[in-house]
Structures are given as structure tokens and as C-alpha cells.
From TrEMBL:
The protein, known as: TRAP transporter substrate-binding protein DctP
Entry-linked InterPro entries: TRAP_DctP_sf (IPR038404)
Source taxon at top rank: Bacteria
Source organism (scientific name): Vibrio marinisediminis
Length: 75
């Protein structure tokens, strides 16, 4: 239901109530089955330190997005 409704695929959660989602741009890419598959990619995170720190701990490249820019960032 989540994927059909929002066009996002839930991968896993790195902190309570937070997760990593893959958008439609990844539809034609190989299936992501482990965190290593997305290492080196830029990932939008909330403007909080928790999101940035969690992504850095996973060896990903966090790109902070302010709350007021979140909706536009998802487009």
C-alpha cells in the first residue's frame, strides 16, 4: 500500500520512526538489498543532527533539507 500510494519503497529504518525510501528514479536500477548498494549516493535528510549523524554512520552522503523545503525535496 505505501509504495502504490506514494511511489516510494521502504528499505529499512536507522532510527525510531525514520527510514530510507527509494523514489521513482530508482525504478530502473538494480534492487537495493543491502546498505552497501547505496553507499556513495546523496541522501536527503531532515535538518536535524540525528538524520545527518545516522547517515554518516552508515557511510552515506547526507544532504540536509529544511522542514519547509521537505515537500519540494520529495518531488
Amino acid at each position: 500500500p505505501f509504495e502504490k500510494r506514494h511511489g516510494l519503497k521502504f528499505l529499512f529504518t536507522h532510527a525510531e520512526l525514520r527510514g530510507i525510501m527509494m523514489g521513482q528514479n530508482f525504478a530502473d536500477k538494480p534492487t537495493v538489498t543491502r546498505i552497501e548498494d547505496i553507499m556513495g549516493t546523496k541522501n536527503r535528510v531532515t535538518g536535524t543532527q540525528l538524520g545527518r549523524i545516522a547517515m554518516e554512520a552508515l557511510n552515506l552522503n547526507p544532504v540536509p533539507v529544511a522542514w519547509e523545503e521537505t515537500l519540494d525535496g520529495l518531488k
